[in-house]
Amino acid sequence: MGRAKCGETRPSFLSQCLSSNFAAPLTPPLPRKHVGSREGLVNPWGNQLVTDLRSSEVVVCEFFNPNLLSSLLPSFHGFLGSPLELFFGLLGSLNLTAYPTSPVLGSWRGEEVKEEEEMGSFGRLARRAVETDAPVMVKELLRGNKDVMSLAQGVVYWQPPEAALNKIKEIVWEPSISKYGSDDGLPELREALLEKLRRENKLTNSSVMVTSGANQAFVNLVLTLCDAGDSVVMFAPYYFNSYMSFQMTGVTDILVGASNPETLHPDVDWLEKTLRENNPIPKLVSVVNPGNPSGAFIPKPMLQKISELCRNAGAWLVVDNTYEYFMYDGMEHYCLEGNHIVNLFSFSKAYGMMGWRVGYIAYPNEADGLHAQLLKVQDNIPICASIVGQRLALYALEAGPEWIRERVRDLVKNRELLMEAMSPLGEDAVKGGEGAIYLWAKLPEKCSDDFEVVRWLANKHGVAVIPGSASGGPGYIRVSFGGLKESDTRLAAERLRRGLQELVTEGMVQ
After folding, report:
1. H/E element, 70
2. Cα distance between residue 276 and residue 284, in whole Å
């Protein structure tokens, strides 16, 4: 059976399957493990469990659509409409298989199929994005101890431009603020963004969709470009939210390539070999430039080579430019354009608009059908980005890039303080910091359990960082230098230095 297109349903096939009597269950397909530098637990999202309330049968289906759900849950039928039809169609895949109630199917990890004794399926959570624990763990550490200073979350300390906020106060009672807007963004904001792309990024052949932040932009793209089971490429250390986005949307063949241990640049030779030999050809290659969590900046010739490899292989290249203004030591950001390249941008870091949730996608005009498919996904997730957030973004653009760069220059001292704080790890242990707001540091071999080190630093020394395992880099930590003003960074840096000095000399003394 062929793969479903975005929004497509096959009621006749499913009706036929539901009317059949499946005598023997088939072995569920297992996803491939990571390729490259990181082997680990895999997340076999491809099978969804649904319980028939009438016969207590568990149905496992790799192509899930509302006709199936309607037949299983007739009492809920009135709530099923075209939005659900579209949503499940977006996640569509391959076959349908029925399993008896007992034993209840467990979760699959690697090649292991475990049986669970819990009652019913309502007590179990989805198995798509549960492998990456760092975001939840760090937030719990911060919530449980108000004295912990955070060098963990990727945020900046400043607020949006004052003039922009004052304009928002003047318009909050306008009726348009509380209504839906265009799915792809307010026309006046899109026009301003197109002008910004032409002027600053030299992107002259792109269209724009406004999203609820760059994370949602990435999810939109994955749902639009990838089917369940497709191959995709990332490079470790990777942005863990992007990794989880692949998991949540059904992409189980995540090929993780290594980066140069000195520069943290992607291994282009590995990419060339992977695009040439992997079958099927990876659907897309994802990079963040400058990097999160690495803070490394990919030189233009290297990204051009990556783009060329993707184009020749017929793969999409998705570049996250969230930190386009966060460049240091004379380096200048750039963007590439092509009919196989999608660029992502964000207002969160640049304009201090983290909570306002505004980002945008710049996608090629020539990409046939891409706009229509992106609109379908957008309409089923946020419908549109927050109207008041979009208006603030429009007003923030009036402040211009120099407003941002003035604040980014203040981060240079923060970077210096934290690099000095991590000196106990050794001269060659700390990398990155060329761009973005991150440093990437290797822990001592004797204390390489990064999750335990992060807990220990928070609980004993009052400073929080991110474990590298969340980004495919076990034995490392990510340190953010953007979220605190210089005075607070000094205090956090001193805590971090004391903790790392103790870690190196004595270990994790409780």
Report:
1. helix 66-72
2. 14
**How far lies 430's CA from each of 26, 215, 317, 425, in Å?**
49, 27, 29, 8
Helices 268-277 and 300-313 cross at an angle (nearest 10°) of 0
Is 60 exceeded by the pLDDT of residue 233?
A: yes
* Residues with Cβ within 8 Å of residue 469, at least 6 apart in sequence: 134, 450, 451, 475
- Tokens 């354009």, residue located: 337
Give the total number of structural domains in the chain: 2
pLDDT over threshold 90, residue 84: no
66 CB-near residues (< 8 Å, 6+ apart): 9, 80, 84, 85, 88
Q: Are 292 and 154 in contact (CB under 8 A)?
A: yes
Instruction: Please report whether residue 17 resides in a domain.
Output: no
Mean pLDDT of the 474-499 span = 98
Local confidence band at 141 (pLDDT 50, 70, 90 cut-offs): confident
Supply the range of the domain harboring residue 298. 162-401
Q: What is the largest CA-CA distance in the chain?
A: 70
The DSSP string of 301-336 is HHHHHHHHHHHHHT-EEEEE-TTTT-B-TT------
What's the rounded Cα separation, in Å, for the pair 363 and 202?
A: 13
Q: Which of 65-69, 214-218, 316-320, 334-338 has the lowest mean pLDDT?
A: 65-69
- More reliable by pLDDT, 219 or 108: 219
Q: Pick the closest to residue 346 from 307, 284, 404 (CA basis).
A: 404
Rounded alpha-carbon distances, angstroms, from residue 262 to 33, 296, 355, 428: 26, 10, 35, 9
Name the one residue in this structure whose structure tokens are 């840096």.
493
**Token representation of residue 370:** 């891409």
When pLDDT is averaged across residues 105-115 and rounded to a whole number, the result is: 39
* Strand-strand pairing, 359-364 and 58-61: unpaired
Gap between the Cα atoms of 375 and 113, Å rounded: 38
Cβ(342)–Cβ(318) below 8 Å: yes
Looking at every residue in the chain, the average pLDDT score rounds to 81
The verdict on 152 and 202 lying in the same domain is no
Distance between first and last Cα of the chain: 58
280 and 416 part of one domain? no
> Smallest Cα–Cα separation from 30: which of 43, 39, 17?
43
379 lies in the same domain as 429: no
Mapped onto helix, strand or coil, the DSSP state of residue 486 is helix
